[in-house]
Records
---
Amino acid sequence: MSSDNDDQINRRTMLTYAGTAAAVGLAGCSGNGGDGGDGSDGSDGDDGMDGSDGSDGSDGGDDAFEIGVTMGQMDSGLDPQDHAETNTEIIVGQVYEGLLDRDKEGGIIAGLATDWERTEEGDVRFVLRETSFHNGDPVTSEDVRFSIRRIVDEDVGIASPQSNDLGSVTEVVAGDGEVTVSFEGFNPIAFQLFATNGPIMQQSWVEENDGNYINRNTNGTGPFMVTEYDSGNQVVYEPNEDYWDGDVPVDELTMEASSESSTRVNRLLAEETDIVTNVPPQEVSRVESSDVAGINSVPSARIIFLQMRYDVEPFSSQQFRQAMNHAVDVESIIENVLNGFGNITGQPTLEGHVGHNPDIEPYPYDPDEAERLVEESGHAGVEITLQTPIGRYLGDVEIAQAAASQIDSLSNVSCELEQREFSSLVQDITTGNIEDKPHFNLLGWGNGEFDGSQTITPLMTTDGALTILENEELDQLMVDAENTEDPDERVEILQEANQLAHDLAPWVFLHQQFSVYGVSGDISWEPRADEFIDPDTATQQ
Amino acid sequence: MSFGRFVLKRSLQGLGVVWGVVTVVFALRFVTPGSAINAVAPLDASQETRQAIAAELGLDQPLYIQYGQYIFDLLRGDMGFSYIRGQEVVGLVFSRLPATVELALAASVVAIALSIPLGVLSATRRNQPVDYGATLFSLGGISTPNFWLGIMLILIFAVEFDVFNTSGRGVDVGDVALSVIGSEPFVGTLLAWLAYITLPAIALGTYFMALITRLTRSGMLDELSKGYVQAAQAKGLPQTLVRYKHALRNTLIPVITVLGLQLGTLIGGAVITEAVFSWPGLGTLVIDSINRRDWPVLQGSLIVIGTSFVLVNVLVDAVYAYLDPQVVND
């Protein structure tokens, strides 16, 4: 809704202008926008992992401007520690910050900590920035200690769904301007975890207010402050004038929801919003051919695959699993179903993530080889069923239909498709008992930590919460990775694990999902790989 | 039976239906697949985390205790806490109700304003082009799906011709009312309100408009063929007086009854229209709660929708009985 041009005022804008201040703000405010502050420098870690440089702050335009973001769904309340979903993270992440943060490419940068390092004992120590919460009170090490404990220990206040995210934190010690966190054993990805998780809240504010209040109000340290909150409908923010990273070049931010993708696209084309999420592939050309908006996409940290249970026939056969990988034409699916918005994969770790093995080629589409492997596996003539969630991932049903039909076209396998409501499918997948899981199903997995272990361990190791595989060699490799202090050596172990996962083929490796945004021509904004939306980095065109 | 006893009887029956709604809505949670814990916990949450969340939500209690507690809380006006949003359900549901009622009333206005003249015109010009046109129009209205009509209206009138807003509810009828006494210009506020509500009201009202057009036409034809109309015409009364004062008046009694009952249907049926237009009413709350397995909010919304329906029915029955005392003795 950047509305700096008077000649763009149309009849609707006129109506709204003439209406009331309560109308969704379309009017642009003139005034001097501040220059975007420089991104702060990340400090060097002394464990061999360099703190990467902070991203450059945007320059900011001469005029302050307003931005509207329309997503498919709104937040689950404003408590930053009482949710486990991306949409809520996008909404509360404008207000709350963690000790570390990530740049658009996923690199670790400074957050509320200015320095971070491992101590001699293997614990991690964060030196805190001198800054304040939105209510003006300074951020203290006690607040940080309380925030981390509130996530990992349900006795501190809530049973946080994020308790797994901070791994095995055993102790948090608050010092003078610093905090030291201990883990159960050496945690090689401690900084990756804190760059994605662990929003900091003020202890006294949390303790003085009940859940109903905390879920409707905010008190963070981030670039924006909430001024209006209409649950499930709209959140309006104003910039935090005292933000530690400099002026925020956005005058007002509005986040709204339209569950219908066509309505989101129509909102964008009618210039009622600036950024819309999840533009479906069939709507892309309509946006691209318009004069007022374009498409901006980025490979996300989410991988899509078909998982096969190792303990049931015919998927107990490695040849059969490999045959399924040869039977599915992933490139054709990406081209025809996803309109090109996908990257083919051949291993569980995505390119750019720690542990990705660049030497692994995806399984080539080869139906003859697939038929041969099926014969070799001894399961010729088998009938299998692929289960897919409906509407959970971009084009999930269409992808599953294409894959099932390609497998079905093999002369010695017949494959049917069963569509299932996501929550019901997940119920089977998450019982912690492999016997409850479907034999063959489509699933997606987002890896916000950008580290291979965060996919392989839960999904492919014997004790993984969602595993469908049992393989001692892979288990051992992941144990080794978990206990290796040398980052380079750890990468090698993870690469070896990826090669093994490729060969074992517990999945039909499909693709890396893309996040597809529609972006108004009035602004310039680059999306991020972790699906977070950062409107404070947008500039006026 | 006296009128008072009739109303009391209907009200008690209504309460029984509301209790039935509450019980069915409560039971739905246990027969539909998918658990609320899956919506709250991440996919890879440990069993300990899941158990802790279940305990926090009270889902680890036996069913009869959950049911008894639910009814007890409802009687105290407490619909519980949202699993997902961590907020009180009563506040959430009742903050959305005005938007839905506003949309349902606006849709009724659209339906009445167009259907009754169209029905009368159709009946008085029977088997003429106007009649065929009206029949075709109402057939189209009945057979057009709400969501498709909504999307088409947005595409044409909001995106292409830029006359209305695509979605949302930036200005509500309360703002319009306040502008009469406040500092905002009344006409401007009214126009801004119309920019938001017109398209969803048309999308939601079209089906009922078509239905009532057909009802008015057949009712009017029926009345026009009756003896009193012919007698009036034979006495030489003006055609306009006979048609619009006598025949139309009698036609409208059943039409108004249907309209009253349809208001309840409109409140419940606004779900799809609200989703298409991102109208922040109970419908979008219901869809959102279904997607997220937020049972307390879903239960609260359905109970409010069901109760509104029952309430409208009882009121219509009472008005009907008042107007036609024979109903009381049936």
---
Amino acid sequence: MWAYIVKRLLLSIPVIFGVAFMVFAMVRIVPGDPARIIAGEAATQEIVEGIRKDMGLDQPLLKQFATFVGNVLRGDFGRSVRSKAPVAGEVAARLPNTIRLATAGLCVAVVVGVSAGIISAIRPYSWMDTVVMLVALAGLSMPVFWSGLMLILIFAVWLGWLPAVGTGGMAHLVLPAVTLGMSTAAIIARMSRSSMLEVLRSDYIRTARAKGLAEAAVVNRHAFRNALIPVITVVGLQMGTLLSGAVLTETVFAWPGIGRLLVEGILSRDYPIVQASVLVVAMAFVMVNLTVDVLYAVVDPRIHYD
Amino acid sequence: MAAIALTGALVISAAAAPAVTPTRGGTLIVGSGVDAVTLDAPMITDSPSATVAEHMVESLYRLTPEGRIVPMLALGHTVSPDGRTWTVRLRTGVRFHDGTPFDAEAAKFNLDRMLDPATRAAFRFLLCGPATCVTSVTVVDSSTIRLVTNTTFAPLLAHLTHSSMGMQSPTAVRRLGVDYARQPVGTGAFKFKEWVRGDRVVMTRNDDYWGEKAFLDEVQFRVIPDDGARVAALEAGSIHVAVRVPPREIERLKGARDFTVSVDDSLRTIYVGFNVTRPPFNDGRLRRALNHAVNKRAIVNGALYGTARVSDAPIVPAIEGYSKIMTYEWDLERAEALLREAGYTRARPLRAVFHHPSGRYIRDAEIAASIQGLVRRAGIELELRTMEWGAYLALTNRPQPENDVQMYMLGWGTVTGDADYGLYALFHSSQWVPAGSNRSFYKNERVDALLDRGRSTMDQAERNKIYADAMKVIMDDAPWLFLHSESQVTGIRHTAQGVVVHPAERVELFKAWIRR
């Protein structure tokens, strides 16, 4: 197991390096001059050229990349070209917010999704199943900027129970977590349902029932754990998506996370910000995937990584 | 819709002039669409940063919301008879928030920093441009500085009001270096407390302020990027002021009990520029035809829900030097006649490519689409090219020989409040991009001469006449399709009193207070 983990971690180095190069190249290929954006539409060309020089953009591309990699290896992500703030600090300030939101969102998604999926699977094709799956479909189809605003309208504006936007205590986390978790819950519900249905039709479940076990015991003790394996894959993938794809939720709820930092970085051609944010998200993806693979072995002892 | 705009303006005047005695204390929260970028005055190029910074950092002079220039950290000034030496007397006994005295040395430090090309100040040209330049700043005594210019530089006073000329503590700037941008130290009514990037800037009252002290204990500028969420936060009472309320919300919010939506003029003119050096728009008849073919009133009332003012000059009324020139009336027959004269018919229509940004100005993409629809009625076919802002600026900023953009939409905020800044950079032939901001490559010797004279004439009445003459020629030449000036739509809760919406796209809280 440990050898496997170390091997996977070593394999992730070229992945991260590849991501770094692609992001580095991509932000530079996209048209738009960061120096001009920083200087604004009124600045003289002389100032724009000066800013370009300060940013090192007058250097050949490969040299820029070498400098970038060298700096990153020393732990220096540079400074934001717009705000001049150290990028490492910017990312470090935003990352905990995103992790908090993604984790809370995932908790909502897993609890709601798995329960809904199992309820549906126990009584397949019943009215309950239909209702649950219809709700799941609605959850999946609703765009975040709409569902988020609706939640704000109901729980912050009309009822006044929860804060509308921003960060703060636990109360601030509820609405964005529910919004973010909603579509993921729908995916997990559908996955849990089909996985559970498949397991419930297998021979060992028939055996368990034939033994005369109560249905609750069959579902909880025998079916549930086996039905979880494909669900864990989905949850793992979704965690990655939640970490990187929470941009809309972060925007609607004015949540200062890394998704928004990335989008703001792209819009203002803030190369160092974009590079650092993508690298961090890529690393998070790698780590989440590894964790999921390790979890398989925990859930299903038949799986070995030797 | 015009009635709504007017009502809004009246309501805000009432809110700005409190009827009851202001009380001290409390925290006022402003919800803004974007975070500040930098709080180092010379580096600021955007109004959200300037709004935040101006509460902490003051300039020598200030442009009031009414458009007057008043002394701030200066007490007054004299200009030598040749108009080239400005002696500015400074306020005494003022200290920066870190205790450093504000004196002539500090003022010189800040102006020199602005003038130093190594600072990379985008607005350096306000002090030193291609034609007019402050050549030296000297300390006369502890409370007097002297600015010498290479030629008569009439708009200099207006330029000294600009937020990038803010007076910042030399001690802090030297000590913090590049990190100063995140913790400014000025002389203002509020002191910097914290900046959680992407979330909020917090400042507290400066109890040692040299002037009339603020009522509020604390001010927060919160970032709420989503328009709908920002309005919802205002409705829920999470914030006191919401800037940039989408115009479409005005109707829905009209009946609100707890807050008012105010509509205030800004200094920003929106226009569509033509490249006057290349076909087809090197033909003035076609430029005038487009001006006649677009119903600006329909755009203002439709796309902007009445929250804008149809342009009757290249600059807006709040700017010193403005005078009403004319508006190209919506006249399809006239447009078609001009097109025919230039050799275009319905069978052989005028075709052009129209570049525009999306999301930069209020409903810019919708306005571009409206223009496309409106001119089609006159038999003009426009192909729209929507572009992302960064790429768009780069495209329109190319020098004349390689610039093949035919039509482009842009806005210009004349933030100094002086006609020179609104006309010189955009219409003088020395200002063709990339050197200046004349993206139409407009060149008219008479306009050049008039704009040069406007810069070198110290008498304001005389200057106003010169600018009126220049604007007449410009409007007649029509290097632009003159559209409108934007309004600022701001939601303000009734508990927040004394909030001022400044035409330079700022929300000012110097005299604001919380009604309990």
